[in-house]
Structure formats: C-alpha cells, structure tokens
Design brief:
TIM Barrel; 12 helices; binds glyceraldehyde-3-phosphate; binds 1,3-dihydroxyacetonephosphate; binds zinc ion; lyase; FBA_II; fructose-bisphosphate aldolase activity; EC 4.1.2.13
Length: 324
C-alpha cells in the first residue's frame, strides 16, 4: 500500500525554528530525548508537561526499524493530545536523529517529521556540504528544519559508531552554515555516544573552549550537542547490584552541560541515561520479585524512574522548565 503523505502540521507538531531562537536568547537548551516505545514516550511527555518544557522527540534509524514508522508517527500525534489531556499543551518536535541519506530524510519529511538531521560528518567536507544542501533544499520546501553536523563523535551505538573523535574545526563552521543553509549545527567537542565516554584515569571534560571559539564565528547560531548522557553512577550501581555488568561507564559532567546550555547550545541529546534508568528499574523489580511476570509491573517502575530522570535534566541541567 502506498504511504499517504502527511505534514507534521496535521499532527499538531512544530518545527524547531522558533524554539531554538528562544532558547539561544534565553540561555537554555531544549531536551532531545530518544524514544522507541510507549513507556519512554509517556515518561517524556509527563516530565515535560509537569515542568512546562518544550521537547524534541527523537527517532533514530534503529528506532524506526524497531518500532515501525507509522506507529511512531501516530504515537507522536497521540503525544500532542496526551499533553493537552494532562493539562498543558507543550511544543513538540518530531525529529529524525542521525539521518544518513537524502532518501531517508525525504521519507521522514513526507510522513510527519517536523525536523531532520542529516549526518554527513563521516564524509569529506565537500560531500557533507553537498548532501546537507540537498536535504535543506527539500526540507525547507516543507517548512521542516534541518540539523547538520561537523566533526566526528567517538562512541558506539547500534547505528552510530566511530572509533575516534575529530573535534569540529571552528574555522569551518561559518562556511558550512552559510553554504548549506542548515537551521542548527551539531558539533564535536568531546561528547560521545553510549555509556563509555571516557576511559578510567582520563580527565572527563568536554572542550568548552572550542564551543566558545565556534560561537565567536557564528554568534547566536543554534548549536546542538549529541552524546550528552551523564551516566548517573547510582543507576550504574543499581544495575550492577542486580546482575548487570557495566564496568567503567563514565559520562559527561552535568555541570559542564549546564554551562553549555547557557550559551548558543539549544538542543542537548540524551538517550543512554534513559536506557540506564529503565534497565536499573527493570533489573531491580525482576531481581527482588522473581514471581512477577506482568510487564506493567516492571515497565511501570521503569517509566516512573525515566520520568524523574527527564525532569531532573530539564530543571537542573538544561534549564528549559517553564519555557513551553
Ligand atoms: O545517537 C544515537 C542514539 O542513541 C540512537 O541509538 O541507533 O541505537 O537507536 P540507536
Ligand atoms: P547519549 O548516548 O550520550 O545519550 O547520546 C544520544 C545521542 O546523541 C542521540 O543522537
Ligand atoms: Zn547522536
């Protein structure tokens, strides 16, 4: 069956343009939380409604494959109504995370996404510019916003892998944003995907000096940080106390992220911390109550724990509370 084209506007979603402009001006960042199931989405929306925060719902290629794009789109539509039902309508962006081709971005744009990332960071500079331009041209015809990326993050995810960091070169950013027309730019300043961002003994710091240098070149331009989980050690401990084996998992300091949020960083991507919160809660229930076999009895506590984590980020790290 042919997919029916759907505009995000019909779903009650918004693109990221105004949200970013306000966030840059207001010195806060908007949470970009990944989701691929119902409990994650419920936790995100409850947390954002309770804190009155705008939100970016992120869908990776892996999430599309796992959860089915039609279901995800309708979950996002449901999220808009759910937020209203909970008492506070909040701006919701549906964003493609790490789009790796024009075709994928086009498909998302045509099926209800309000924002897409085209990640050409592994290509040569010229090829990254060319691919990003092509996506921007198509997306803007549909009033969909586009995130590009310059520099390579280290870390390993199902679909996003890189062995090494290549920090974003500040000299390139102005040329890149001018040539491509992107609406926001993801940069590499030492964050990375996954739960193992630094080796034991390493100084677990991100390069706020490079961020500052970039901001001087493109003042007020919306900047995005990927790989920004902090890997809360209490969650790692709970996982390990209940049968898990996560060794030397280290994340980004929340203090540094708070600092970055006050600058032109207006979108901060967090996925791994949510995975840790869910896993810790599920492991604890199943370990302590081995007789339990109703998924709601372990996914419910996982959802509660996720919601608290998301609220904590919004209030104490990103500063987006009250900005909906
Ligand atoms: O940037 C990567 C996100 O954490 C998504 O990961 O591809 O495993 O869904 P995933
Ligand atoms: P984390 O793995 O640090 O949560 O980063 C997620 C991310 O960047 C999604 O694009
Ligand atoms: Zn990412």
């Amino acid at each position: 069956m042919q997919k029916q084209p759907t505009s995000y506007k019909e779903l009650g979603l918004v693109n990221s343009r105004d949200l970013f402009a306000k966030a840059v001006k207001g010195g806060y960042a908007i949470p970009a939380y990944n989701f691929n199931n119902l409990e994650q989405l419920q936790a995100i929306i409850m947390a954002c409604v309770e804190t009155k925060s705008p939100v970016i719902l992120q869908v990776s290629k892996g999430a599309r494959n796992y959860a089915n794009q039609t279901l995800l789109r309708n979950l996002a539509r449901g999220a808009v109504e759910y937020a209203e039902e909970l008492g506070t309508p909040i701006p919701i962006v549906l964003h493609l995370d790490h789009g790796d081709s024009f075709e994928l971005c086009k498909d998302c744009i045509e099926t209800g996404f309000s924002s897409v990332m085209i990640d050409g960071s592994h290509l040569s500079y010229e090829d990254n510019v060319a691919l990003t331009c092509k996506v921007v041209e198509y997306a803007h015809q549909h009033d969909v916003t586009v995130e590009g990326e310059l520099g390579v993050l280290a870390g390993v995810e199902d679909e996003v892998a890189s062995e090494t960091h290549t920090y974003t070169q500040p000299e390139e950013v102005e040329d890149f944003v001018t040539k491509t027309g992107v609406d926001s730019l993801a940069i590499a300043i030492g964050t990375s995907h996954g739960a193992y961002k630094f080796k034991p003994g390493e100084d677990p710091k991100i390069r706020l000096d490079i961020l500052e240098e970039i901001e001087k070149r493109i003042p007020g331009f919306p900047i995005v940080l990927h790989g920004s989980s902090s890997v809360p050690q209490d969650l790692v401990a709970t996982i390990n106390e209940h049968g898990g084996k996560l060794k030397d998992a280290i994340g980004i300091s929340e203090d540094q992220l708070r600092e970055a949020s006050k600058s032109a960083v207006c979108k901060i991507n967090i996925d791994s911390d949510g995975r840790l919160a869910m896993t810790a809660a599920v492991r604890k229930v199943l370990d302590e109550k081995p007789e339990e076999f109703d998924p709601r009895k372990y996914l419910g506590p996982a959802r509660d724990s996720l919601k608290e984590l998301y609220k904590h980020k919004i209030i104490n790290v990103l500063g987006s509370d009250g900005k909906a």
